[in-house]
Specification:
The structure is a single chain. It is built from 5 helices and no strands. It is mostly helical. It starts with 17 loop residues before the first helix and ends with a helix.
């Protein structure tokens, strides 16, 4: 099987019948729309709630695509949508399909294990990214402190330079006065 840019361990929609995937996305989208309308929110208002309170950035058009079943979603979005809409995530998801055979059960277990592995890997990636962001912020704070200290030293040096120039000017004036008296 050729790799078309997707990770080999990814659970793809080609592992499920297309009608099932489309039906599931359509069901999910319909549930999101139902709960959104029950709250009296527009798609744009839902997008703002997701961005402001759940750190999930979806544009109004993306919400529309989710509701129409034409845009897939991911686990963090499902949880954020459920939380924003005040429902449990399982109220958004379609009812489980009962497996018809042990083959179906094995395939479902394999898909679940892959999804679980991917979720764990992405959680680790997110942790690493948060750690890197914290280190970067610490470095930025340290550089900011150094810049402030250098600015203070620079200002102090400028003040000292002004004082030295004034003293030099005063000494020149005194020397001129002395030369003027000695003549």
């Amino acid at each position: 099987m050729e790799n078309d840019g997707q990770r080999d361990d990814a659970v793809t929609t080609d592992q499920l019948p297309v009608a099932d995937v489309a039906d599931q996305a359509s069901y999910f989208g319909g549930r999101v729309r139902t709960f959104r309308k029950a709250r009296g929110w527009s798609q744009e208002e839902l997008a703002k709630v997701l961005a402001n309170f759940h750190k999930v950035v979806l544009h109004q058009t993306t919400v529309a695509k989710l509701e129409s079943g034409t845009r897939p979603t991911n686990v963090p979005e499902i949880f954020a949508l459920a939380s924003a809409l005040g429902v449990s995530y399982d109220e958004l998801l379609p009812p489980p399909v009962v497996a018809n055979s042990s083959e179906d059960l094995t395939a479902a277990k394999t898909a679940f294990e892959r999804a679980k592995s991917m979720a764990n890997a992405r959680a680790k990636e997110a942790d690493r990214a948060r750690d890197q962001a914290a280190r970067t912020q610490l470095e930025a704070d340290t550089l900011d402190e150094k810049a402030k200290a250098l600015e203070q030293e620079y200002r102090k040096a400028l003040r000292a330079d002004v004082v030295q120039r004034r003293r030099a000017e005063k000494l020149r004036e005194i020397a001129a006065d002395i030369e003027g008296e000695g003549v």
